[in-house]
C-alpha cells in the first residue's frame, strides 16, 4: 500500500506515531483535542489546522496531503531535528546568526564537536544532529571573532561542524542537505590550517556519493582522499594512521559495490597493513580505525561481493569480546553484515538470532538502516513465523518489499 492510498487523517495518525498522543499534538499545535480528532477522522481539516499540524510533526503540508511520501524511519523527533538542522546549515552559510549566540573559546567548541561525534558513533543520530544545531553558529561566531590571517583553526572547527551536519543528513536520507553541508565543509576545510581536513571532507563527500549511487565518483574521490594523506609508516602518528586507514577501507567498500575484486584486494591489503601497524583501535577526527575495524569491514565487503563462504570464514575468526574495541555503530553494522552472510548461506535461524539480538540492543540505530529489512525479506522466504517478531522490531511487514507500513513511523531506511 502506497502513502497516497491513505486518507489525510490516516497519514496524520501514522506521522504522529506512538510517541505523540492526540493530547500532546494538541499542545504542540495550540489546537483543541477535538480539532485533532476531527482531522484524524477526516471530518474537518482547514488550511490553518493543516499548517499547524504539519509544523508540529516536522513535515511539509504535501506529506499530509499525500502528494509526497515521508522519509522512512523518521519519528516526529527526527523530523523536528532535521528541520532545525536544515535551517541552521543554510542560515550560517548565509552569515545569519541568532542574536543569542555567544562567542566561545576554541576549546569549548572543540569539546562540543567531540561530544557530538560520540553520540554519532553510538548511533544516536537524532541527538547528534540536535547538537550540531547550536555548534554551527558557535563555530561561525568564533571564526568572525578571529583576526584575519589567524583564522586557520576556526575554519577547521567550522569544517568539522558542517561535516557532522552532512553525515547526519546523509544517514537521514536528506541528500540535498547532505550535499549542501559537505560543500560548505569543503570551502571551510580549504581555508583551515589542518592538513588532514580537506581529505576528511573529501571522504565525507565520497560517502554522500555512495549513498546517492554515484559509485564511480565515490571511488575516484575516496582514492584521491586516501592518496592525499598516505603517511610514511615509519614516522606516521596514530592520528594519521587512523584517518588513512579509514579512508583506504572506505575505498575498498566502494570498490566492492562496483564488484571490482582486484581493487578490493589491493585496498584491503593496505587496510590490513595499516591496522597491523597500529595494533589497537584508535579514534581521531570523527573516525575510528584499527585491526578490528579492518577485520569486520572485510566481512561486509565479502558479503557485497557475494563471497558468502569467505564472509563466514572471516566471521569465525572474530571473537565476540574483541568487538568491544569498536564503536557501537560499528558493532551494529558488523552484526548486520554477519546476519546477511548467514542468510545468504541459508542459515535462517542463525541469521534471525544475530539480527534480533542487534535490533534489541540498538533499536535507535536500527531504525535508520536499510539492511534489517533486506535481511528479513530474504529470511522470510524460507523461515517460520519467528520472522514476524523480528519484523515488528524494525516496523516492516514480512513479505512486503515496498510501500509504507502504517503500523509505525519507525520503518527502516
UniProtKB/TrEMBL annotation:
What stretch or stretches form a coiled coil here?
A: none
SMART domains xref list: HTH_XRE
Q: What SUPFAM superfamilies does the record tag this protein with?
A: lambda repressor-like DNA-binding domains
Domain annotation HTH cro/C1-type: ranges: 18-64
- Short name of any one Pfam family annotated for the protein: HTH_3
Please name the InterPro entries in this protein's record: Cro/C1-type_HTH (IPR001387), Lambda_DNA-bd_dom_sf (IPR010982)
Q: What is this protein called?
A: Helix-turn-helix domain-containing protein
Which classification does the entry list for the species?
A: Bacteria, Bacillati, Actinomycetota, Actinomycetes, Kitasatosporales
Amino acid at each position: 500500500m502506497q502513502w497516497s492510498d491513505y486518507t489525510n487523517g490516516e497519514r496524520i495518525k501514522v506521522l504522529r506515531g506512538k510517541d505523540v498522543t492526540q493530547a500532546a499534538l494538541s499542545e504542540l499545535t495550540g489546537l483543541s483535542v477535538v480539532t485533532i480528532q476531527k482531522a484524524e477522522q477526516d471530518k474537518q481539516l482547514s488550511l490553518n489546522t493543516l499548517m499547524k499540524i504539519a509544523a508540529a510533526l516536522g513535515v511539509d503540508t504535501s506529506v499530509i496531503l499525500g502528494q509526497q511520501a515521508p522519509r522512512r524511519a523518521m519519528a516526529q523527533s527526527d523530523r523536528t531535528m532535521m528541520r532545525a538542522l536544515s535551517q541552521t546549515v543554510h542560515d550560517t552559510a548565509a552569515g545569519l546568526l541568532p542574536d543569542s549566540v555567544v562567542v566561545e573559546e576554541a576549546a569549548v567548541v572543540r569539546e562540543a564537536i567531540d561530544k557530538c561525534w560520540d553520540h554519532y558513533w553510538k548511533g544516536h543520530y537524532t541527538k547528534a544532529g540536535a547538537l550540531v544545531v547550536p555548534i554551527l553558529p558557535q563555530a561561525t561566531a568564533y571564526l568572525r571573532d578571529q583576526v584575519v590571517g589567524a583564522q586557520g583553526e576556526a575554519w577547521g572547527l567550522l569544517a568539522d561542524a558542517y561535516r557532522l551536519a552532512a553525515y547526519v543528513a546523509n544517514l537521514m536520507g536528506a541528500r540535498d542537505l547532505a550535499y549542501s553541508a559537505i560543500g560548505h565543509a569543503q570551502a571551510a576545510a580549504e581555508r583551515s590550517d589542518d592538513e588532514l581536513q580537506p581529505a576528511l571532507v573529501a571522504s565525507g563527500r565520497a560517502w554522500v556519493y555512495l549513498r546517492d549511487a554515484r559509485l564511480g565518483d565515490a571511488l575516484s574521490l575516496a582514492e584521491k582522499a586516501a592518496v592525499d594523506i598516505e603517511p610514511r609508516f615509519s614516522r606516521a602518528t596514530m592520528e594519521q594512521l587512523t584517518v588513512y586507514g579509514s579512508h583506504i577501507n572506505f575505498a575498498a567498500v566502494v570498490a566492492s559495490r562496483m564488484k571490482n575484486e582486484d581493487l578490493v584486494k589491493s585496498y584491503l591489503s593496505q587496510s590490513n597493513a595499516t591496522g597491523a601497524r597500529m595494533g589497537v583501535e584508535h579514534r581521531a577526527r570523527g573516525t575510528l580505525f584499527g585491526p578490528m575495524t579492518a577485520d569486520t569491514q572485510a566481512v561486509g565487503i565479502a558479503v557485497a561481493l557475494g563471497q558468502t563462504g569467505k564472509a563466514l570464514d572471516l566471521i569465525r575468526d572474530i571473537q565476540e569480546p574483541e568487538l568491544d574495541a569498536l564503536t557501537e555503530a560499528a558493532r551494529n553494522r558488523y552484526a548486520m553484515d554477519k546476519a546477511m552472510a548467514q542468510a545468504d548461506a541459508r542459515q535462517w535461524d542463525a541469521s534471525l538470532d544475530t539480527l534480533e539480538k542487534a535490533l534489541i540492543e540498538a533499536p535507535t540505530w536500527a531504525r535508520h538502516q536499510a539492511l534489517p529489512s533486506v535481511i528479513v525479506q530474504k529470511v522470510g522466504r524460507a523461515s517460520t513465523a519467528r520472522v514476524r517478531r523480528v519484523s515488528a522490531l524494525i516496523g516492516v511487514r514480512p513479505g512486503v518489499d515496498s510501500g509504507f507500513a502504517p503500523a509505525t513511523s519507525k520503518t527502516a531506511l
